[in-house]
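Customer escalation, tier 2.

The customer says the design service returned an amino acid string that "doesn't look like it belongs to this structure." They asked us to rerun it and document both sides in this ticket. The original structure tokens are below, unchanged.
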């Protein structure tokens, strides 16, 4: 085989409930992941030694060395199958980015998931999705979900997944990309500081009304139940987001929230036409760097081409 290309989606969290910090520094989460139609593409090809090239949206801000999450995924997969007898020789990883970097959309985790799936194919290692998810979880909290896609409940660090049994309703979103980035660890640390209540944060729980809105496929209800515990911390670090969120709601969004640790804002629209109107109005309002229309749920990482 001479190369494998995998397409992988960005994610939103329709609910992101964050508990107190754990002993390992991570936070216990209950989250509702939702994959949306904004994709990176990752190609792996046999090479004398491992290497990474990044092109596209924000490429200059992605490490092209051992710190790259896709690169770390390749190393983790090779270590996991070392004794399996398969050939796991060097690979050149080429990442073509459309998911903005450090934007709360899990772009880095998505690239890691795509690299795992592509190398599993290239090396014919034959690992199951579950096995790839377990390896992915050692690389990043959101990698397993990027493999799974759809809509799923995440627990633990976010890596323990249960697919949500929901109808095939498509939701129409407008993403407002910010002029800047947020560091995920810094957003979590800010949340811890903002939580001054004695005893700290409560253990997080799944939002039952959100799940029943998803089961009913009711966009209006879903919009009214969007929630993100990280949002106050993201807004404290990036105050301009308050204006972006307000503008989207005033322009008719069914709901609005900061995506993950931000600074991207996500707005739910009633249908594709409303999403177009909202996207046009938001980009005219001067409250973000650019906008994109996406829909979800979308499947997880998938091989789009393999050449021999
Ligand atoms: O797992 P990942 O590398 O994506 O996480 C990035 C950072 O986000 C972690 O280093 C940690 O600071 C924070 N995090 C957390 N609790 C989680 C997931 C992430 O505190 N459940």
């Amino acid at each position: 085989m001479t190369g494998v290309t995998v397409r992988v989606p960005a994610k939103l969290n329709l609910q992101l409930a964050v508990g107190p910090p754990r002993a390992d520094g991570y936070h216990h989460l209950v989250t509702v992941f939702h994959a949306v139609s904004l994709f990176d593409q990752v190609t792996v090809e046999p090479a004398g030694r491992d290497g990474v090239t990044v092109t596209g949206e924000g490429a200059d801000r992605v490490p092209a060395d051992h710190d790259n999450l896709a690169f770390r995924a390749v190393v983790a997969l090779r270590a996991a199958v070392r004794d399996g007898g398969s050939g796991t020789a060097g690979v050149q990883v080429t990442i073509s980015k459309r998911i903005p970097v450090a934007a709360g959309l899990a772009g880095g985790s998505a690239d890691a998931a795509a690299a795992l799936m592509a190398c599993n194919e290239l090396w014919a290692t034959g690992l199951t999705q579950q096995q790839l998810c377990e390896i992915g979880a050692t690389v990043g909290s959101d990698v397993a979900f990027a493999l799974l896609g759809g809509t799923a409940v995440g627990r633990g660090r976010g890596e323990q997944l249960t697919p949500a049994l929901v109808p095939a309703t498509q939701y129409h979103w407008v993403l407002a990309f910010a002029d800047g980035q947020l560091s995920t660890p810094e957003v979590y640390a800010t949340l811890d500081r903002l939580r001054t209540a004695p005893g700290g944060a409560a253990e997080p729980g799944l939002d039952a009304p959100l799940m029943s809105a998803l089961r009913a496929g009711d966009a209006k209800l879903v919009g009214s139940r969007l929630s993100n515990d990280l949002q106050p911390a993201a807004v404290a670090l990036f105050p301009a987001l308050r204006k972006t969120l307000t503008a989207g709601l005033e322009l008719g969004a069914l709901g609005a929230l900061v995506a993950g640790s931000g600074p991207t804002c996500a707005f739910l629209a009633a249908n594709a036409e409303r999403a177009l109107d909202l996207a046009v109005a938001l980009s005219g309002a001067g409250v973000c760097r650019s906008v994109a229309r996406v829909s979800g749920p979308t499947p997880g990482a998938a091989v789009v081409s393999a050449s021999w």
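Tier 2 assessment: The sequence is consistent with the input. The first helix runs from residue 69 to 80. Residues 26-27, 29, 109, 140-142, 157-158, 184-185, 188 surround cytidine-5'-monophosphate (CB under 6 Å). Sent an explanation to the customer and offered a walkthrough call.
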